[in-house]
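## retry 2 of 3
previous attempt timed out at serialization; input unchanged, resubmitting
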Amino acid sequence: QVQLVESGGGLVQAVGSLRLSCAASGRPFNRYAMGWYRRAPGKQRELVAHITTGGSTNYADSVKGRFTISRDNAEDTVYLQMNSLKPEDTAVYYCAAVDGPQAYWGQGTQVTVSS
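## retry succeeded, writing output
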């Protein structure tokens, strides 16, 4: 089992930036694909960005060109750099570690973007 702790959320004005971090502990971090998800009020959880064990990435269309996911296997941490933030990016952001059919989730961190 892996434990995940997100940090870095907060309140930011539109067009500002934030960097989220997700620190993992437990089983070897480099065996997991990692993802950032978000849930906005009244909406379903959606995938924001994903990074494989090999470092390949993919993004939701709504964040392409603005968000960057990265991982540091030496530090057991995955990051989400968020630039040019918009009010519609307001949500609770969760990181997830995936190993085949098994997924582990963090507790989430709130990101609020004011207009």
